[in-house]
Amino acid sequence: MMKLKLVNIFAVCLITLTVLFPSLAVFGMVWEQHLKFIEMQHIPSYHQSIKSESAPGLEISSLTNDANATKLSLSNNYQILHLWRWLFLLLPFCIGVAVYLYDRYLVFRANMHQQQVEMLEKLWQQFEK
After folding, report:
1. What is the longest distance spanned by two Cα atoms in the chain?
2. CA-to-CA distance for 96 and 85, rounded, in angstroms?
3. What is the Cα–Cα distance from 65 to 59, expressed in whole angstroms?
4. What is the DSSP code string of 44-111?
C-alpha cells in the first residue's frame, strides 16, 4: 500500500516537472535578460553623474567601485537563483530515483529471504529423512 502511494507521488512529481520545465526554462532566459538589462541601466546612470559633476578623480573611482559592487551583487543573486532553480528541478528526479532504488532493494531483500527460506526447508526435509 505504501509502495503504491510512493509511486503515485513520484508520478505526480514527474508530471509536474514535465509541465513546469518549459516555463522554468523560459523564466530563466527572461531572468537572465532582465539582469543584463538592469546592469546596462546602471552603467549609463553612473556615466551621466560623472559627466554632470566636475568631480575630482577620487569620486569617479568611488562611483566605479559602486558600479562594480552592484555588478557583484547582481551576479551573486543570479548564482543563488540559478542554484535554487536547479535544486527545484533536480529534487523530484532525486526523490524518484531514491524511491525506485529503495523498491529494487526491497525486491532484492525479499528474493534473498525467499532463497534462504527455501534452503532451510531443504535442509529440514533432509534432516527429517
Report:
1. 110
2. 18
3. 10
4. HHHHHHHHHS---HHHHHHHHHHHHHHHHHHHHHHHHHHHHHHHHHHHHHHHHHHHHHHHHHHHHHHH
Q: Give the whole-angstrom CA distance, residue 95 versus residue 38.
A: 36
pTM above 0.85, yes or no: no
pLDDT of the chain, 129 residues: tens digit per residue: 667 787 788 778 777 877 777 777 778 778 888 878 877 777 655 555 555 554 454 444 554 555 566 666 666 766 777 777 777 777 777 877 888 888 889 999 999 999 999 999 999 999 887
One-letter amino acid of 4: L
Specify the DSSP class assigned to residue 129.
-
Cα–Cα nearest to 7, from 99, 110, 109: 99
Question: Quick check: 50 and 67 in contact, CB under 8 A?
Answer: no
67, 42 Cβ separation under 8 angstroms? yes
CA distance 125 to 129: 7
